[in-house]
Amino acid sequence: MSKVIFSIRYDIYPEKREDYLTVIKELKSLVKGDGLESYSVYEVKGKPNCFEEMYVYESKEAWENADDIDNERIDILMTKVSDMIKDKSTHYTTLFEVES
Question: Could you give the CA distance from residue 22 to residue 59 in angstroms, rounded to a whole number?
Answer without folding.
Answer: 30
